[in-house]
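Case study.
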Amino acid sequence: MKNTEELFEYLATHFGEDLFTIEGGDIGEKWITIPAERLKEVAKFLRDDDSLLLDMLMCLSGVHYPDDNELGVTYHTHSTENSHKLTFKVRVSVDNPVVPSLESIWKTADWHEREAYDMFGIIFEGHPNHTRILCPDDWEGYPLRKDYVPQEFYQGITTRE
Amino acid sequence: MTTDTENTIGKREMTINMGPQHPSTHGVLRLELVLDGEIINKVTPFIGYLHRCFEKYAEEVKDYSKVIPYTDRMDYVSAINQEHGYVLGIERMLEIEVPDRVEHIRVIVAELQRIASHLLGIGAFGLDLGAFTPFLYCFTEREKILDIFERTTGARLLYNYMAVGGLMRDVHDDFKKDTTEFVKTFRPKIKELNDLLSYNEIFIKRTANIGVLPEKVAINYAASGPVLRGSGVKWDLRKNDPYSIYDRFDFDIPVGTGEVGTLGDCWDRYIVRVRELEQSLRIIEQAVEAMPDEGDVMEAIPKRIRPKEGELYVRTESPRGELGYYIISDKSANPFRIKARTPSFVHLSMLPAISTGALIADMVSIVGSIDIVLGEVDR
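After joint prediction, the assembly is written out as follows.
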């Protein structure tokens, strides 16, 4: 069992220190930020490496950071073999929010990524069924973005009270 | 001419909708089935019919504690467990020490709720497969739990009972007596349930060897709770990542063994739930025994909830599996972001993986055995 710092050091020896940054708030858990273009390669390593074996993706969440004009995806993983946990993030700009899909690595990412697309408009490259999941297919806008304004009419029906 | 007809008849597929209003989909769920006769070639679940914007609401409510009633409404048959996860998360962010008495009451009500939820799951599963009587037996027992809840919290389904740092009100004077009484009367009923349903030959025929979920697939899909344990993985957050005071109690983790069929089939998932009833009773007994009689359940409730900047992911074992809340605080009065990771959402996503090639009638077994609550899927 390793903590986040030890996992970070282990990853840094494999991929080089420059690739990642380790961050954290005043409280709570720390996380690692990974550049989007290397995400898939790193994720595969996280799952398959013998001393990591992060075989379960517990949660995948989209986040909107309006101050930085960025969208982010947070991945929470844990290992059923080694029982350590790792949180990692990807940040992309709102204008070109493309993140590689991890559906082929952890199957559970399938629906979670669709939800993140539905709510934040993050585009997951390589996803086999890239459609909305909770909202109707012809819904406009991405509801969980901080600057979201609900559409006034949906198929001729008012959305106000 | 004859050969032509044979080719077209043999290969014609039919697409039908199961739901959104279908008695065995446990809520508003639409399954699009592509059928070759009775055999399912492809299944696509469509969800979102009950989407109530939980996450958006939580970000705009301007108060952390006003989110609690909304967590109740996600999984409306195990509301206490949903609240428990959320308040734990906020307490960890605020670094509050919760009084011992509160922790004990929380564990007791959470385990009672787990029994109530499993009884509903088991009863409805039997009902889906045509066993009407066990459903009534389960509901009679569930009613007794709801009576205890009614006296304790004032509500029967959606409680709003837990508060950050404590409880909304103290338990009534007879709480210990009522709970002990329930444990005593309920224990023999588990055997009755086994005789009536679990080892019923028709029931076994309808559930064994159906909807087999192998261990590797279960982990890759991040299954949890009885669904994961049904595939033989000994994984329970109450033991593997203990929260609250679960590390003080002695209980076992039942897992599926492929007793009447293949490991990870519908029957294994079902029997794990039945065996968990007994384990919950053991936890309740120990918690009632150890619960302090004196103490103010409201003393640790903060006047103002303003966590520092940071984020965490808190996970608890709800009756359906791993319930996670990903909470980000930006020092304001409401959470910057809350994501509820609900077990039913994840379990429903693996439906295509385990039901391709099954019969339509088996689809009913499979949906029943993963025990989904659509309120939790759609949030």
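Observations recorded in class. Residues 4-15 of chain A form the longest helix (12 residues). The CA atoms of residues 96 and 149 of chain A lie 20 Å apart. We will return to this complex in the next lecture.
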